[in-house]
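User: Could you check the structure of this?
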Amino acid sequence: MTVGTGSYSFDVSIFDNVNRLWRPMRKTASLIISFFLICSVATSAQQWPAAKANEWYAQQPFLVGSNFIPSTAINQLEMWQADTFDLPTIDRELGFAEGLGMNTMRVFLHNLLWQQDPLGFLQRMDQFLQVADKHHIKIAFVIFDSVWDPYPKLGKQRDPKPHVHNSGWVQSPGADMLKDPSRWNKELKPYVEGVIGHFREDKRVLMWDLMNEPDNTNPPYKGKELSRKIQPSLDLLQKEWSWARHENPSQPLTSGVWKDDDWSNDAKLSQMAHFQLHNSDVITFHSYGPPDEMRSRIQSLQHLGRPIICTEYMARPMGSTFQAILPILNHEHVGAYNWGFVSGKSQTIYPWDSWEKAYTAEPTIWFHDIFRKDGTPYDAQEVALIRQITGKDRASKK
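Assistant: Sure, the predicted structure tokens are below.
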């Protein structure tokens, strides 16, 4: 059949022939397209190549910051819940950080906040990021945390126990959730995917720390902690990594190792440490010991050929001071997050042994933290050193 309009005409039978030829090929073409789509998703769901991770790190300044919670919050829930979300204090205290030349903060979230009010939680996260960005600070968010109280509850949080280190910090998820994998896909997966998916392209977010110290058996809560905690923690971390990768964030994923001094031999790694090190885009670790320990841990991670960031250090009585450790991290170009910023309801000026040993007054040597609530530094020499290393002194003299 020939059809035409005006001076244009064509033979319809040509299309019939093409359709007959195409019909048996459609299934094959569909399979080919599906294969490439699957490959694309699989590629995005893998650990970043070392070259990509190093390229990302080369674009960052020397990362210096603290593990941050405002002085008016005892834990993650009090920091983020609508009734106690204290943006003026956050703004003021991040201003202290900007004054030191700090350019990043590590900040803990909680799955119950998503359960309580997903939209409100995301809005408060965005407000927090706006304030941080005003102070030129990028945020490393921690999704889950395996340390301290295993039984978190929404609502008004308890008052601090006098003179006790982190007396109200809570785990995420709590023990009841951790021991029941049947709940994870329904209750934890939407939180992980919702938060990371929402901020996956946000340049104010530096990286995602998926789980803090997942194999910490939590001695202060002996008798209340799960008796066999490490295996379900590993199971959850593996699932969480898959959920996070599915969102394909522009920021790197990590989870920090913290046990042992030598992570150089795969054969001697725990199953947890092996999984963390061989899935993290950038390598993170903790070290609260003196300079020799810090150097040893850094050296044991360098064989991985990836950026290295210390996401927890600085416990003065243990020899982990700013004067002893920060110059080492700077020299090795290892990112540096000390624990604690402004002394407040977390009470981390007191040492870990305050759970068993009675303290009745402020310790002469603070364990963590840099400032009092009014912005007065605990040690002016520490503040001067931090400003020198971050270049804040040079910048302020121009």
